[in-house]
Design goal:
Rossmann fold; 6-stranded parallel β-sheet; 7-stranded mixed β-sheet; binds NADPH dihydro-nicotinamide-adenine-dinucleotide phosphate; 2 domains; 10 helices; alpha/beta; Quinone Oxidoreductase, Chain A, domain 1
């Protein structure tokens, strides 16, 4: 089968499209013929070495497809089932071996592309808005990179929960998408400092929660956007990691909370995975959650897909098709 492999950390050029063996199955594994693989920002961290993984590796943490074969102890799935998964490495490939507890069924009405678009980014938006800081009716929130994959989904879930939503992004075209997803206000942080803008929009009060996936460039000012007892949710590093922080500063700024959550922790047990994916798939089928899937790349062009994502050229979801 074909797969996209990384043997050393580096730029997009370190990814090679190669012939490799179809993965062998453990007793509780399922062989999935991948129809759509999701591209996520974390893939670029794993490729660059910001997040270290054992090498050589096949990249990709999200896929949707059809069950081709099951291990002898698999009980939940059978050949031919339509399935999707996240948090298992190796999705940039024609086939992946996935432990059955990580798989979910794709309901009727949810396509492979939607499945691959929903598992990582929509489940992330779900845990951020339902669990890390459970948004309440009337809350205000600031969402950075609002037109990105997670951003557009998080806006919609924050609006469903009744929040006032301020988004940031780098271009007017992206701002239009964020507004269409429901953002009440959008700040072009490439042109204006978002901190005084957030203060102006909230009449000086600040917001209850900041969802910050940009990291280095936004972290300090994000904290200053919070109301007392506000939640600083740092969940990504698109501009680089935050490396220096003094927790004592959280006190005088109003007893703030700071967390650095990961999807893996919030879907570690199957109950949570099934809860989050069921909500997401139901919302898709009910038309409450719109997935913006606009960028498709063949598996052989994974390098181009990463260049587009890191070059801030994409909005919503980027899909690789084997
Ligand atoms: P996005 O589609 O959001 O792409 C990243 C966006 O970040 C860009 O489009 C860009 O939007 C913005 N950005 C700001 N500064 C930079 C920069 N210097 N270089 C590149 N992009 C920049 O990606 P994803 O939806 O896949 O992921 C969003 C973030 O969420 C990532 O940081 C990712 O690691 C994180 N994440 C964390 C998870 C967790 O559980 N902790 C799970 C899933 C994602 P603009 O041009 O508008 O600024």
């Amino acid at each position: 089968m074909k797969a996209v492999r990384v043997k050393e950390y580096g730029g997009p050029e370190v990814m090679s499209y190669e012939e490799v063996e179809v993965p062998s199955l453990g007793a509780k594994d399922v062989l999935v013929k991948i129809e759509a693989a999701g591209i996520n920002y974390i893939d670029t961290y794993q490729r660059s070495g910001l997040y270290q993984i054992p090498l050589p590796a096949t990249l990709g943490l999200e896929g949707a497809g059809t069950v081709e074969e099951v291990g002898p102890e698999v009980t939940l799935f059978a050949k031919g089932d339509r399935v999707a998964y996240t948090s298992v490495p190796g999705a940039y490939a024609e086939y992946a071996a996935v432990p059955e507890e990580k798989l979910v069924n794709l309901p009727d009405g949810v396509s492979f592309n939607q499945g691959a678009a929903a598992m990582l980014q929509a489940c992330t938006a779900h845990y951020l808005s339902q669990s890390t800081y459970p948004i309440k009716n009337g809350d205000s929130c600031l969402i950075h990179a609002a037109a990105g994959g997670v951003g557009l989904l998080l806006i919609q879930m924050a609006k469903m929960a009744g929040a006032f939503v301020i988004g940031t992004c780098s271009t007017e075209e992206k701002a239009e998408l964020a507004r269409a997803a429901g953002a009440d206000e959008v700040i072009l942080y490439s042109e204006k400092d978002f901190l005084p803008e957030v203060k102006r929009i909230t009449d000086g009060r600040g917001v209850n929660v900041v969802y910050d996936s940009v990291g280095k460039d936004t972290f300090d000012r994000s904290i200053d956007c919070l109301q007392p007892l506000g939640y600083m949710v740092l969940y990504g590093n698109a501009s680089g990691p935050v490396t220096e922080f003094n927790p004592a500063t959280l006190g005088p700024k109003g007893s703030l909370f700071l967390t650095r959550p990961t999807l893996f922790a919030y879907t570690a047990d199957r109950k949570n995975l099934v809860w989050r994916t069921s909500d997401v798939f139901n919302w898709i089928n009910e038309g409450k959650l719109k997935l913006r899937i606009e960028h498709f790349f063949p598996l052989a062009e994974a390098q181009e897909a990463h260049r587009a994502l890191e070059g801030r050229k994409t909005t919503g979801k980027v899909i690789l098709t084997p």
